[in-house]
Amino acid sequence: MRDLGLKILCLSNGHGEDAIALRILRELQQQSHPPELAVFPLVGEGQAFAQLENTRIIGPVQRMPSGGFIYMDRRELLRDVKGGLLQLTLAQFKAIRAWVRSHQESGNQDCAILAVGDIVPLLFAWLSGLPYAFVGTAKSEYHVRDENGPLPRKLRGISWESWSGSVYLPWERWLMTRRRCRAVFPRDALTTETLEKLGIRAYNLGNPMMDGLEPENPAPGFYGPDAEFREMQRSIVITLLPGSRAPEAYANWQLIVEAVAGILSVIVDRKLLFLAAISPELNLEALRPILESFGWHQEGDIRTQQREGSILLSPVYNAEEIRKESPNLQLPLTFVQKKATMILSQQSFNDYLYEADLAVAMAGTATEQFVGLGKPAIAIPGIGPQFTPAFADAQSRLLGPSLILVKHPAEVADAVQFLFRDPDRLQLIADNGLRRMGEPGAAARIAEYLLDRLVI
């Protein structure tokens, strides 16, 4: 039975985890008897939670030098330790205990923890002494196996990641099997099935990463007698995903623009439209010099996307007039070269995912979301701290045939041609993306289930 006095503290540990937690908490607030919410981002400053009304951060937050990627590089861990990681972790644990104690002393026993991320928030949830639920965002059985069985052990990382029979290690599973752990929500069906066999109360309700990605202006479908002609006449649309954190994203951008140059050299009979989805945390102007060094020149006007059936048109607007009316608006930048157009925007993420035929990607969450829409992505490992060769390798295992991993930017063009020559593979990729990432609506399903499970 649902209790009207339920209070939930949500723990998360990363930018992507904050975004997933935010979707679930918003759905909790939409319930007929919403719980009282508090949040605690354990990594970073939790800026995403500023969008939640009547919700406060309960303890100290701090941006660490690594940006939360200490598990990828020991040097990053050392930098964080020098930056105060141990002191911050202790202060955060004390803050959680203080939140629990304050509610218990006030006579409210109906408190619970929602842990989103990996073992860190899961461990804190157990240490709190309260009932808890866990949304596992970081691990998937797809890292070590697929529906056909274990992946070849010669692949990097496989030999140690699966030694205990699951991608989740014994101590992580121990935390999930405690009586106070009321529910575990893995990121996919394969992981759920494995955890269920190990005695864990795991529920396959989908992956909240796929929620809220609907385009602002959905394209109507037209299937007339000239559909094939129209398809051949339209631009090939390629989305570019350089990641969200500086300075890494700027280094990634250099590699991506090199890859684009290779694509231009081999696809000469079709128009090309490149849509660069740039994080609001980055500076668009900082991307200009690299483009200009590869022969791109900026148009004086601004292009935006307008759909006509399945064809993208680009109406032109006078940039100076828009800047006079809205001086603080971050406008997209448009560059041209031969038959190709490139648009850089910080406001069109969903549209850019939906419009593309494929992506050149050096991102984490954004790449997974793109693949979840049933589309192929080509990845180039960078220098990190996030998108390193080790991370790219793990992501390629996670996403299977939907992610094509190349070693150098020069190899991207061949990968693009290979995809366009193999329609059967494109269909396999479409099916694979949906299976691995799930259907939209997971946050609402998890929120509803939480209210039934956290008070028993």
Provide a concise account of the structure shown.
The chain has helices spanning 15-29, 74-82, 85-105, 119-127, 158-161, 170-176, 189-197, 227-233, 248-266, 288-293, 319-325, 349-355, 365-372, 389-399, 412-420, 423-437, 442-453; strands at 7-12, 36-41, 56-57, 111-117, 132-136, 145-146, 149-150, 181-185, 236-241, 272-277, 297-298, 301-303, 306-308, 311-313, 316-318, 333-337, 340-345, 358-361, 377-379, 403-405. By secondary structure, it is α/β, with parallel strands linked by helices. It has two domains: 7-212 and 440-453, Rossmann fold (3-Layer(aba) Sandwich); 227-437, Rossmann fold, CATH 3.40.50.2000.
Tell me what you see in this structure:
This protein has 456 residues and is an alpha/beta fold. It folds into 2 domains: 7-212 and 440-453, 3-Layer(aba) Sandwich (Rossmann fold), CATH 3.40.50.2000; 227-437, Rossmann fold (3-Layer(aba) Sandwich). Helix content is 38%, strand content 18%. The protein is built from 17 helices and 20 strands. It has helices spanning 15-29, 74-82, 85-105, 119-127, 158-161, 170-176, 189-197, 227-233, 248-266, 288-293, 319-325, 349-355, 365-372, 389-399, 412-420, 423-437, 442-453; strands at residues 7-12, 36-41, 56-57, 111-117, 132-136, 145-146, 149-150, 181-185, 236-241, 272-277, 297-298, 301-303, 306-308, 311-313, 316-318, 333-337, 340-345, 358-361, 377-379, 403-405. The chain has an 8-stranded mixed β-sheet with strand order 11-16-17-10-9-18-19-20, with helices on both faces. Strand 1, helix 1 (15-29) and strand 2 (36-41) form a beta-alpha-beta unit. The longest helix is centred in the first third of the chain and has 21 residues, at 85-105. The radius of gyration is 23 Å and the shape is globular.
